[in-house]
Amino acid sequence: MNNGRYGRFGALIGIAYVSVTHCRFLIYSTKNAEVLACHELKLRQIVHQAGWLEYDPWEIWKYMQECIETAYKNLVTLEIDPHDIIAVGIVNQRGTSVLWNKYTGQPLHNAIGWSDSRSTPVLRRVLHNVKQNVDYVRERTGLPLSGCFSALKIRWLMENIPAVGRAINEDKCLFGTLDSWLLWNLTGGVQAGVHSTDITNAHYTSLMNLSTQQWDAKLCRFFNLPIEILPQIRSNSEIYGYVLDGPLLGVPIAGVIGEQPACLMGQLCIKAGQNVCTLDDSCFVLLHTGTEKLESENGLITGIAHRLGPRARTNYSLEGAISNAGSTVNWLREKLRINTEINSNDNVVESLNTFIGDSSMISSTCSSSMLNAECGLAAKRSEITLVPAFHGLYAPYWRYDARGIILGLSSQTTAENITQAAYEATGFQIYEVLEAFKRDTPNWDHACMNPVLTFGGEYAEDTHLVQFIADIMGYMLERPHTASPAGLGAMMAAGVTMGVVSLEYAIKMYAPPTDVFSPTTTPNRREVLYRRWDYAVKRCLHWNNFETYEADIELFSQRERDPNLPIRRSIPGSIFMVTSFGLLLLARYLHNNPLT
Q: From CA 386, how far away is CA 424, in angstroms rounded?
């Protein structure tokens, strides 16, 4: 879709990308989706208390300016004409919230990260008012009540930061997620800044009505928030404004989209039934549902995949958000000083390859040096189960009061066993979301659907880990060689605006080589392990209930030894019901046919 006006790489699009850990600017060729130039800087994560996560908004803006300038210079160094850059797109972590003074441009507080749990007291109060109904606003928003969405973060700032309250009272306050903050500054800030956001980011605030795709006054009243501070909601593909300073002066900002919907599009999962999993410190699993808006009854988020233009039809998704995935591994490494690097720790590799016990099948990704007697004689899988609910559980439970738990410790437990349990936890959490997908789509023909999950993210680069998760879940995993799926998705959104990219063109020209991982375990063994995980989750949901602990442990042990225990326990009740029914029939017969 590129004409002769541009150089050998066709029209170029720059993407400003703020993730949980990095700030980066990528310059894409729309001809073949190649990243021609890129510069990134690591963000400073500010942690004042356990569960809190902040970012300095000014630092994010300064870093983005540096990334843009450096990537632009790199493009010139490569002798590629920078005037071929026809548009800029923005992609960002959703839910991270910032408030700033619209007259000075000064942030009123650090940006609060999406996974920050400081608003838990506010959430507890809100849930008390609605009789613990976590789905109270789901019909309007598609979301459960949770502190990971922006509404409760704003409420906490209003109650605890005096400068925020004053700015709101004086009509000086603006709210936005990181896309709004970058957009406002790129388009002139105090002088002429555009205060807008896209529907995928607006959705993650808990203040947007999913049906109208506009701010909902009733929701704002429910959370006691002023609607005046909110940005204008727009589609993912349209001209938001123009860059007013720097090397990209005059370039239109033609697309904005949240990180996970961008990953869904960037992995080319643009048809109903396709799903994608992004595994970083947290984990997100999305199922594209096309133009069908499905209301989840199984703890998932009803979200927006994309809307590629003001007049385009909205595509929806079901989403499972998992708060602790790669961060669990970081916790083991940084807090417990455990070596979690799979490729550098043969004991961990052996542990992963033998997780199914004595009759294990060696993973298809074992290197030839490992296919020896030691692999066959590796120790039996330990019975450790770790649930990383450090500050609650998200999908599909949405329990802020859950806490992490490790079950099955013994004197023989090793660091490798704990590492293995952490990786298992990631696989089981993904599996729970995939099963919730099935329950929320009862009218879909799952028998005709290929059980394939597109896999990406920082931790997906580890081949051993990806194979292990495929074994845990029993799903085939595809790992496309896409450097930055979210960046590519944002480029596609901006490219649609500029008329140089279409979804059909992207499927044809942007499809990368793909690695495939097939499960090597038996369904029976996976079921046994999942039942143990399910029990551990129930314990972490009720971690402070000590009264039934010993009875529960004994019952779980009996079930492990005797899988038919529930059936046999039901026999006396079944006999009672059958005999009662028989006696009832006999009494009626005798009533109608008395013995005379």
A: 8
Query: In the structure encoding, which two tokens stand for residue 578, read together?
Result: 């059958």
DSSP 205: T
Question: Once rounded to an integer, what is the mean pLDDT over residues 21-46?
Answer: 96
**For range 446-470, the mean pLDDT:** 85
- Beta strand segments in 222-348, E: 232-234, 237-242, 252-258, 275-279, 283-290, 301-306, 315-322
CA distance 149 to 227: 16
Contacts of 570 (CB under 8 A, 6+ apart): none
Q: Which of 389, 342, 483, 457 is nearest to 21 (CA)?
A: 457
Cα 224 to its chain centre, rounded Å, is 27
What is the spatial distance between Cα 53 and Cα 40, in angstroms, rounded to a whole number? 21
Q: Which residue has the tokens 């385009």?
A: 312
Name all domains of the chain by residue range, CATH numbers in brackets.
12-326+443-517 (3.30.420.40), 556-592 (no CATH)
Q: Does the pLDDT value for residue 389 go beyond 90?
A: yes
182 in Cβ contact with 200 (< 8 Å) = no
Mean pLDDT across 502-506: 96
> Which residue(s) pair with 112 in the sheet?
54, 97
Q: What phi, psi does 215 have (nearest 5°)?
A: -60, 140
Write the DSSP symbol of residue 372: S
Q: What share of the chain is helix, strand, coil (3-state, %, to 5)?
A: 40, 20, 40
Cis peptide before 396 (omega within 30 of 0): yes
d(CA 427, CA 493): 31
- Would you say the pTM of this structure is higher than 0.90? no
Find the range with the poorest average confidence among 18-22, 85-89, 288-292, 416-420.
416-420
Structure tokens at 363: 């993973």
**pLDDT per residue over 268-290, tens digit each?**
999 999 999 999 999 999 999 99
Tell me the C-alpha distance between 324 and 279, whole Å: 10
Amino acid at 320: G
d(CA 15, CA 37): 11
pLDDT of 545 > 90? The answer is no
The 3-class secondary structure across 250-264, one letter per residue, is CCEEEEEEEHHHHHH
Residues making up the chain, counted from first to last:
596
Q: Do residues 366 and 375 lie in contact, with contact meaning Cβ atoms separated by under 8 Å?
A: yes
